[in-house]
Write the structure tokens for this entry.
Amino acid sequence: MCGIVGYLGKNDAHPNIIAGLKKLEYRGYDSSGLAVLNGSLNIYKMSGKVEDLCNYLQSQSLCGQIGIGHTRWATHGEPNDINAHPHTTRRKDLALIHNGIIENYKELKEKLEAKGHSFDSETDSEVIVHLIEDIQDTYSCSLEKAVQMVSKKLEGAFAIIVISQQEPGKLVAAKRNSPLVIGVDDGEFFLASDKLAFPRRFKKAIFMEDNDIVTCKQNGDLILSDWTGKLKAPIIQELGDHIINDYEKGEYEHFMLKEIEEQPQVIKNCLQGRIDVNYLEPKLRGIYENEVKFLQASKMTIVACGTSWHAGIVGKYLIEKLAKLNVEVDYASEFRYRDPIINSSDIVVAISQSGETADTLAALKMAKEAGAFTYGVCNVEGSAISRMTDAGSYTCAGAEIGVASTKAFISQICVLGVMAIQLGLLKRKITREEAREYLQEISQLPGLIEKTLKSKGDIQKIAQKYFSASDFLYLGRGVNFPIALEGALKLKEISYIHAEGYAAAEMKHGPIALIDENMPVVVVANQESYKDKIFSSVKETKARKGKIISIVKESDTLISSESDDVIKVPNCSDFLAPFISVIPLQILSYYIALLRGCNVDQPRNLAKSVTVE
Ligand code: G6P
């Protein structure tokens, strides 16, 4: 949460920082600010979007080749001008931005107050800048030395960038448990929470490790050390072009719709190199290079949050069916704080779009400490989770900007589908011929999704009919149960309508009490199995006057006959059913949110990357 950027180079910092912040708004967008150093330190910050800050800055003359910027998702203190970053002290010669949570800030604040420091904001972050000032005053040390000493005192998560009027021509940064990447380009430095924020010309990056401290200087020097001051050789990595192009919205009004429509291509990218032309061999490298681990495993535990957790449940159904491997799916936040039984023969899979969700990271650390073999299914290359796991598979969805996850989800279940086939084959639970059939089917997905997307207009009309409902129920069975959960989550995230996903048969144990003529019930029913059972749930709903919106196969007549509205999707096997059924649910949420006048790409209170507990 929160996006931070820092610029130092030969160009004006301000436009580079604003452009970077706009690209980081997916991390939080309740307030923003920036500080530019040009002899004196100028700080501007306010509640609202980066666009508001940008408009305000048009009336200011802002030059300076070194600066920092922040876009906030509030944790400590409401989103207002004072709590916005950068933070400074009374002397106003230091400016600091922070992403993360300082867990011991109260204790540190009390000590500083006792020494005479007074605080303006309610944030935990402000304490860091006061600590830096205090240490510099006490030890007359450099900014980098003070940052080094301060980082030892901080508990929790932080990525910070700080600049000082007393030490112009340098920018100092440090991190622990929050991401920070340094872009380097011919004497220019661009630091950011995500490489996506880099200006196009930056093609090389250094991914900072936990407890690293970096000093970037105007003369082009970069000094990297650990928190004991021991120098480290920076590892510079080349960045691909695609990370930059994904940021364009093109002809689309919203990233969400663009990302929904990109899904056929995303699946092609995800499958590339993982299925051979003869459909003989699924080839997830992380699995074939560690076959013994997978063969010996008695259990797989999937840890994830949000939409990625739903993908995990789809994975459970597919892997248990094809590979007969016991799979548990846990919310990472629950896993990390109970006493899960983890054996060294277990495989723990972390699914995460961002690869940096705090709870998923912590769950993974626990699994590693218990000796389990860890596997990452991440989208963002080089992310913390992908670096921490023993092996893994990237989902290759490209940058996902819309806060509500769509293309990342499809790519996650695509990887899990291939994983299920590969493990089934490896464990000899399916034959080569069966594997071949599954692989052929999964390869048909781009075309089938392309066809599903053609129902957009019809779904828009259904949205028109139901957009003012105050509650929705989503029902599904088997592998379409997690799709019902995902459909409900998509709707509540972006339209603020209360929605619940349920395993269809569970409806009788509570939710049925909610059903009346005002309740739309979305029934996800494009599989062959359970058809009659789903039909019974439909009848039970109708008997209570609920309105049925069904997602069914083209060939269906049974469930359609009892539905108020029908969304027909291409016929497919039960194995492919969840890949197809999720698409109309994404589209339905999109149009309902649009009709309700909601900010589809930046829903209130949410952030795409949840780096705090
Ligand atoms: C946030 C996002 C969701 C995402 C979840 C887990 O809540 O808004 O879209 O599913 O975090 O994120 P991850 O990056 O770990 O998949």
